[in-house]
Amino acid sequence: MTPQSDEDEVWRQIVASFNETAEDASAEQPWPDRENVTEEPDAGEDDGASGDAAPGDGIRDDDGTGDGTGEMRASAPADDHYIPPAPPPLPHGDTLSRLSWLALFGGPAYLLLAALLQWPMDGWIVFAAVAAFIAGFVILVVRMGDGPPADSGWDDGAVV
């Protein structure tokens, strides 16, 4: 037999035994029995049917009396929710960057609006809108500050 035919035979056996079930699953477990997961009810779930809740233990009545006459509900999950802090305010930016953003979006927006409303567009209006778009883009890219910080010194770190 050739190595290729051995491999083909192994694949045929794998395909033939695909839908078979193991006779003794516990004998073939690759992990210890103590790691098997059993389904247990969650300790935090309480359907209110046990009746062993005492007043003041995190469960209260809907009517607020705590005497057990109203429907009980758990108040602890509501207290455990994460409330993120308020986000910091957005940076205001200087006048040049605001004008650059206006030119970047304003030029194409004007051309689109003029085309939809069929306004007459002279050559200089189209040129000004395209020039505003290009100028806004260039100013924003130049001001990105992609270089190293000014206080980083002469060493730029490891170069790979």
UniProtKB/TrEMBL annotation:
<feature type="region of interest" description="Disordered">
    <location>
        <begin position="1"/>
        <end position="89"/>
    </location>
</feature>
<protein>
    <recommendedName>
        <fullName>DUF308 domain-containing protein</fullName>
    </recommendedName>
</protein>
<feature type="transmembrane region" description="Helical">
    <location>
        <begin position="99"/>
        <end position="117"/>
    </location>
</feature>
<keyword id="KW-0812">Transmembrane</keyword>
<feature type="transmembrane region" description="Helical">
    <location>
        <begin position="123"/>
        <end position="142"/>
    </location>
</feature>
<keyword id="KW-1133">Transmembrane helix</keyword>
<feature type="compositionally biased region" description="Acidic residues">
    <location>
        <begin position="38"/>
        <end position="49"/>
    </location>
</feature>
<keyword id="KW-0472">Membrane</keyword>
